[in-house]
# Entry
Amino acid sequence: MDLPPKERLLSLDAFRGMTIVGMILVNNAGDWGHVFPQLQHAAWHGWTLADLIFPFFLFIVGVAMSFSFAHRVEPGTGLKKVYFQIARRTLILFSLGLFLNALYYIPDALSPATLRIPGVLQRI
# Structure
């Protein structure tokens, strides 16, 4: 089956790139004793640039999913294959997140006290 070439939404790509740069800045702010306040999360009330990175990323994922689904679902075909792909990717991301979180707590990786299920990959 020949699919048409994928067209890129340049504004989404640019926003994705800026968000990735933001992730790098927030996670590697340099000397943690002297950090620009916008690169740290707000203590409780208010928000900083660091607090916007994850919502921006989720927005990008949602927009990209709409384009992906429109490309995968052809008129007159069932959604069974798309649902299977969604379930497969969900299981992979969830399992990968559990594995990466368990690596951090090697001595007691499977202890319910240290295993963190709602990690970033599980939230996506």
The CA atoms of residues 41 and 51 lie 6 Å apart. The chain is about 55% helix and 0% strand. The longest helix spans residues 80-104. Helices lie at 10-27, 49-72, 80-104, 120-123.
